[in-house]
Amino acid sequence: MLSRGPGLAGLMLLAACNQSTSGGRADAPDPASQAKRDALTAGRAVTPASASPADDGQWIMPSKDYANTRFSGLTQIDKRNIGRLQVALSFTSGTTQGQESAPIVVGDTLYLVTPYPNTLYAIDLNKAVDPTAPVPTVKWKVNAMAASASQGEACCDGVNRGPTYANGTVYFNSLDSHTLAVDAKTGKLRWKTQVWDYTKGETMTMAPFVVGGKVIVGNSGAEFGARGGVAALNASDGSIAWKAYATGPDKDVLIDHATFKPFYPQYRGKDLGQHSWPGEAWKIGGGGTWGWISYDPEQDLVFHGTSNPSPWNHEVRPGDNLWTDAVFAREPATGKARWAYQYTPHDLWDHSGVNENIVLDLPWRGKVRKVIIRPERNGYVYVLDRTTGEVLAADQYVANTVSDGVDLKTGRLRHKPEMIPRRGKVVRNVCPNAPGAKDWSPSAFSKVTGWLYVPHNNLCMDWLLGKPNYIRGTPYIGVTPRFFPGPGGNAGEFMAWDPVNRRKAWTIKERWPVWSGAAVTASGIVFYGNLEGWFKAVDANNGKLLWQYQTGSGIIGQPTVFRGPDGREYVAIISGIGGWIGSMVSHDLDPRDPTAAKGWGNMTAELKKVTTKGAGTLFVFALPKASRSP
Fold first, then answer.
1. CB 575 within 8 A of CB 533
2. Radius of gyration of the chain (CA)
3. CA distances in angstroms from 562 to 262, 496, 521, 528, 559, listed in the order given
4. Residue 308 is among the residues annotated as catalytic for this protein
5. What's the helix, strand, coil split of the chain in %, to 5?
6. Which residue in 170, 291, 524, 585 has the fewest CB atoms around it within 10 Å?
7. How far, rounded to the nearest angstrom, does the alpha carbon of residue 105 sit from its chain's CA centroid?
């Protein structure tokens, strides 16, 4: 049996309905106890309390909680008063590369990390009280002193996705593959550990994930032939507790067949991370972990994805190329894999599998299933049983010309044979394109509506194979792509996804791909930003625009929501275009080259006309004191 979406014609119709809605209420009561019974009664997904506890007003990690909900329980800012939202604080770091960091908040302090050179700032929120003088006080800053040469090893700008707080310490990564631990109060460096070797293309852009005394980090670099991996450092001293690679023999992947029990039989063989590659290609096979990690305390398992195989040219790497484009369930203490599933076997299009795995309990055929839900780059929203790795559903959410759904009996994606690239022939109208239906930009899940709020793309491309040549520390791709907008002409969308009914609840068309993250509140407001610099608030129930603010540069960062030391609710975002999507602007690339920025030059040259290079500006918004609803 195949799991399919509405098809191309249906998707074009959905795109044409800019804000069509399905049933559901954004103001329904938030399920608090007996989550499984409530989920069945209400007919909606819920988060397990252990992975997403009640909101304390802080935002201590980019994903908000272990479940990766990016949900705030605060309600002071609501649909009646949001029109009066105003800047309470702003701060500029002066860094001009892409600003992807989430501003996190602990007590009265906001922390953010800049792109290269990766400076961690601690900002005093006690100053965010007077809107007539929103000048912040920097308590302290720590420069990671990342090696300048590491900028040349970053595939897609020297971005950083933010810091993480745990037990009095702030952790962050540097582009040159170090993890740093800093005293949250004083800024004193507690330790600094080199995890990978940037001279091989092994850089770090992800936010650390802290659980059970372990700081879990992974590398980037598949576009340089870097062998992907994930590692855990001991939070106390920075020593490396374990390291697991995405390719190679079982001992390197941390697969022990006494405890590794994948659902599908094709994953039960020995040393598949080696034997599913030709020769020793696995040693330069990619599979980095640079996206998001979630955690299920009930099972004591972390879930993390792996990126695309190296190189993009698939002809030089026959086989499934395990364990790239996959998700692993691992024990955080030991790193041992409990199960794994590969979203895109033998990836043809750079559809990296690093997106968020949101931990939910989902009504399913009269029962409640423990699941992870992931809007995947290959164009399908996946629902996996998080105890076994079984695919329960895989539903199409964008135009797709390259695959015919997922076989739920085998779990395998069905590539369309007629679209498989061959040397010397341009493959036309490949949808979704290399950045995929959705790149790294994280979704949010509302505990009120039970819906996901997903920033994503509507993109296609032409694809021409070339000859890849591996030279350590240099690009290893072997493809020339050219990107263009998908059906309807809009290159991006922001959608609400109903995971119970497995369909779009509503969608908003955007001219450009939506590269920012999302956040949603208990008062039914969703925040996200677009590449033209607009920071937006929309109604969680129907997508109606409630408020927007022009920040001056394209937004590719992550919004966060928190309670300040004065008791008010605040919303924060960092503005500054860049990353893969915005490098035409941030690096001032030549718009006459349609292949610039690995394919973006064909369509994002126009971005220079609608936005400007940023300087890393943090905006923190709040209501005037007199405007708070009773």
1. yes
2. 22
3. 39, 23, 10, 16, 10
4. yes
5. 15, 35, 55
6. 524
7. 19
d(CA 315, CA 418): 15
Catalytic residue among 296, 350, 510, 569: 350
159/146 Cα distance (integer angstroms):
12
- Listing DSSP states for 254-295 in one string gives T--TTT---SSGGG-SSSHHHHTSSTTGGGG-B----S-EEE
Is 256 designated active site? Answer: no
Six token digits for residue 119? 């400076």
By C-alpha distance, which of 630, 620, 520 is closest to 55? Answer: 520
Q: Token digits for 565?
A: 């030391």
Per the residue annotation, which of 308, 321, 457, 458 is the catalytic one? 308
210-219 pLDDT, tens digit each: 999 999 999 9
Residues 509/15, Cβ–Cβ less than 8 Å: yes
Average pLDDT over residues 416-439: 97
Q: Are 609 and 626 in contact (CB under 8 A)?
A: no
As a whole number, mean pLDDT of residues 394-409 equals 98
pLDDT (tens digit, 9 = 90+) per residue, 127-152?
765 555 557 899 999 999 999 999 99
8 Å CB contact between 269 and 275: yes
Catalytic residue among 100, 223, 296, 331: 223
Instruction: Residue 194: count other Cβ atoms within 10 Å of its Cβ.
Output: 13
Q: What are phi and psi of 292, to 5 degrees?
A: -115, 150
Backbone CA torsion sign across 501, 503, 506, 512: positive
Residue 348 has pLDDT above 50, yes or no: yes
State both tokens at 358.
């949101």
Residue type at position 165: Y
Q: What is the mean pLDDT of residues 400-405?
A: 98
- Got the DSSP string for 483-541? EEE-TTS-SEEEEEEETTTTEEEEEEEESS---S--EEETTSEEEEE-TTSEEEEEETT
Please list, in sequence order, all residues whose beta carbon lies within 8 angstroms of the beta carbon of residue 100, skipping any fewer than 6 positions away.
115, 159, 160, 161, 162, 205, 440, 556, 557, 558, 579
d(Cα 111, Cα 97) in Å, to the nearest integer? 18
Please check whether residue 560 is in contact with residue 571, taking contact to mean a CB–CB distance below 8 angstroms.
Answer: yes
Give the dihedral of Cα atoms 263, 266, 271, 273; nearest 10 deg. Answer: -90
CA atoms within 13 A on the CB side of 22: 16
Q: Catalytic residue at 55?
A: no
Which pLDDT score, from 0 to 100, does residue 535 have?
Answer: 98
Q: What percent of the chain has pLDDT over 90?
A: 85
